[in-house]
Sequence to fold (261 residues):
Amino acid sequence: FFILSQGRRLRILSKRRRITVINYVEVDNNFIWNIEQYNCKEQFITVLLRTWSMNPMGSARVGVNSLLQMLSLSEDKKNKASLKETLVAMEKKGMIIIFEDFIKMNQIQAEDMKYANDYFIEVSDVSDAKTIFGENGEGKAKNNFTKISFDVMMKLVAMNERNKSIAFSVYFNIVHWIWEGISNWRVSNPTIKKLVEATGLDKKTITKYVKVLMENELIYFETIREEYDKEKNYYCKWEYKEYFKEDVKALQDYYKEKGGK
Fold:
């Protein structure tokens, strides 16, 4: 019996040759919330590179031009220079290490990258899930992370949207409130004000990208009137929307009884 681990992609092999593959990364919540040190573009690229690093090499094979394509940005001089500046900043912050070869023997500085070439980028543990002091009610170590699946990252990349990093920031700050336990209700209801504080974005931008995320089948939400003059969004991941719809009417009936008509 043995385990091969690269990033957060785990392959567990037993004598029966059974293989379990975990197709998600565990992202430290504090990394995303630290908007003073890391902007949303750096955060999105970090999680994107970690997703692409779910392979035996433990690195993502990408370059400036290929990253621009993933970000739905044209390969003009301005965009190339801007993205390269971002990679240089990420390197200075200790977020990434860049190599010219897949065995990671020949390191190269971000400022020396050629736009058309692909490189092997290794992501540091700055965004990895952290275990925090103490235990939860079940006696297990507390964790302060959110799981982001490969499928979610693929949907974000496939979006016809220039500001994918903003979409990711809004998505993360909605779904991190959702608990994935068997008995938990897989719904979150952060206020727009709370999303503004967590992301550093304005209310108009938050509202726009909540709709963008729903249009791209990443989240589902319903607006429920809790009081006569107070409405609130309730969110779930897209894959849970059918279950959530069953609960919406119960919520609406509950608040009607409280006077929110």
Summary: The chain has nine helices and 13 strands. The longest strand covers residues 219-227. Residues 241-257 form the longest helix (17 residues).
